[in-house]
Amino acid sequence: VQLQASGGGLVQAGGSLRLACVASESIFNSMGWYRQAPGKQRELVARITSGGTTSYADSVKGRFTISRGNARSTVYLQMNSLKPEDTAVYYCHMERGHYLRDYWGQGTQVTVSS
Questions:
Q1: Cβ(110)–Cβ(87) under 8 Å?
Q2: In terms of C-beta density within 10 A (0-12 exposed, 13-18 middle, 19 or more buried), how is residue 70 classed?
């Protein structure tokens, strides 16, 4: 399974970015976004199940929205009201199959300046 993430960049605090992840497979248990800031552990930001159920980290609730594109292998993360603490490398993730295998994209840098 290949995951291709895009959409990161540099934005001022209060701005918006949209990340996209295109997967080579459209059948999965869930897809989502994790992030890792320097010196910190990777953390879950948002995920969406194959049935469309979404969940978010408390720190991004009300600001970020995860959604699936018309192509079922595409997932977006709309990030609004960005804060400097959102600065991190964002990784696309897929959990797939009966054995809950994990797949990761290459990461995209998001930098929010104050």
A1: yes
A2: exposed
pLDDT > 70: what percent of the chain?
100
| Closest residue by Cα to residue 65 from 50, 45, 84 | 45
Q: How far apart are CA 32 and CA 23, in angstroms?
A: 11
Q: Helices in 26-103 by DSSP H: which ranges?
A: none
Angle at 12 between CA 104 and CA 17, to 5 degrees: 40
Residues 80, 99: Cα–Cα separation, whole Å = 34
Over 80: is that where the pLDDT of 72 sits? no
Q: What is the mean pLDDT of the chain?
A: 95
Cα–Cα nearest to 76, from 44, 12, 31: 31
Structure confidence at residue 26 (pLDDT) = 87
What pLDDT sits at residue 78?
Answer: 98
The CA distance from 7 to 52, in Å, is: 22
Residue 48 has pLDDT above 90, yes or no: yes
